């Protein structure tokens, strides 16, 4: 079936945060350009409701995805749109990731109302809810005090405005998409702050039972091949590390001249123990590279860090 032969509107399921809606509209625009009718359906997830707990304490996997996945199963939506970073490393058997959209810049940024703010200059309180960012801050800026900062981007920026922190750390992608660029005080280097697997890309999920022709038409319009291979590698790494967002692991794949490069690692919660390894291969090896690199990281001390994190959390 060609795109122009799909007659009923594609029902796009999304969370209700402004960033989620931006992503859903981004998908809708692409499908529309390709001649498809679309409908956006907003669904509230547990991650949107429970704002007083750190993500690693809510515990359940897929706090931002569960309700959307239920809607895919019962057929009330055709596709679910997620920040790729928020999608569990293993998705349920009856669902599949249909596409990864072209990535935005992948790095983290410092957001502050003080335009001359720089990390590490004097005593500072930094808001972040990510164990990865917290651990990396402790390593590279040992004098910094980190403080929980959850909620959607608007909520976090409001907390910053209220004076709860001197600055907060966010992914550039969300900041750019919400047009908060003017509040960026510092761009963090990819050498030190390796992003979380999937950061900056939008993932499209569907039920395996979605009509074959519909899947093909959607994939054709929404998938970005280069991004796809990078995310396959990063997500294979995450899965093999037994990731989940509570583990401070990170992975960044890049593709240049048909060579896939994967840099990934893990850091202890106190920031003292950092392991970063790197691998180069072909796009056909993306999945295997992720698995292999995870095993290298595990064998070079990653298993020790994971064990220590599990003990600290227990
Ligand atoms: N877990 C929250 C989340 N999921 C995706 C993004 C940012 C945009 C992206 O990486 O696609 C964010 C916020 C952040 O980390 O700043």
From TrEMBL:
The keyword Zinc does not apply. The modification S-(dipyrrolylmethanemethyl)cysteine is found at residue 245. Binds 1 dipyrromethane group covalently. Residues 229-295 form the Porphobilinogen deaminase C-terminal domain. Pathway: Porphyrin-containing compound metabolism; protoporphyrin-IX biosynthesis; coproporphyrinogen-III from 5-aminolevulinate: step 2/4. It is an enzyme of class 2 (transferase). Gene3D superfamilies: Periplasmic binding protein-like II (3.40.190.10), Porphobilinogen deaminase, C-terminal domain (3.30.160.40). Residues 10-208 form the Porphobilinogen deaminase N-terminal domain. The keyword Secreted does not apply. It catalyses: 4 porphobilinogen + H2O = hydroxymethylbilane + 4 NH4(+). GO terms for molecular function: hydroxymethylbilane synthase activity. Pfam families: Porphobil_deam (PF01379), Porphobil_deamC (PF03900). SUPFAM superfamilies: Periplasmic binding protein-like II, Porphobilinogen deaminase (hydroxymethylbilane synthase), C-terminal domain. Keywords: Porphyrin biosynthesis, Transferase. Its cofactor is dipyrromethane. Belongs to the HMBS family. The porphobilinogen subunits are added to the dipyrromethane group. This is Porphobilinogen deaminase. The lineage of its organism: Bacteria, Pseudomonadati, Bacteroidota, Cytophagia, Cytophagales. The gene is hemC.
